[in-house]
Amino acid sequence: MHSVDPTESKEILTRLKTTRGHISGVERMIEEDKTCEEILVQLLAIRSSIQKVSAVVAQRYANTCLVDALEKGENQQEILNKAIETIMKLSQ
User: Fold this and answer.
1) Which of 1, 27, 36, 61 has the smallest number of Cβ neighbours within 10 A?
2) pLDDT tens, position by position, 19-53
3) pLDDT confidence of 86, banded at 50, 70, 90?
4) What is the pLDDT of residue 66?
5) One Pfam family name from the record (predicted)?
6) Among residues 39, 47, 38, which one has the least CA distance to residue 19?
7) Tell me, what CATH number does 79's domain have?
8) Range(s) of the domain holding residue 15
């Protein structure tokens, strides 16, 4: 990611590794024939983890990527439209 603080990168990577662990856990749970409720709880944890990563990256996008584009003289309306479109996709 462009212009990312090393601490922030570490946070993002940690969250993604946690998500990977949850996914592996769900695979094991299915192999071990765990209950649907147990599996759904883990799936909720995965979704929450991904949402947190998305929020951190979206914030970084707004704080640096958009500002960089504006400073480079790119078309403000195009930048804004692209940002809105990208962030709206996160909520789907």
Assistant:
1) 36
2) 999 999 999 999 999 999 999 999 999 999 998 89
3) confident
4) 80
5) Trns_repr_metal
6) 47
7) 1.20.58.1000
8) 6-90
Residue whose entry in the numeric block shows the structure tokens 């951190």: 56
What integer pLDDT is reported at residue 71 of this predicted model? Answer: 85
Is residue 56, in this structure, part of any structural domain at all? yes
Three-state DSSP at 51 gives: helix
- Its sign, for the CA torsion 79, 4, 56, 9, is positive
CA atoms within 13 A on the CB side of 8: 16
Long-range contact list for 58-62, CB < 8 A, 24+ apart? 58/87, 58/90, 60/1, 60/4, 60/8, 61/86, 61/87
Residues, the chain: 92
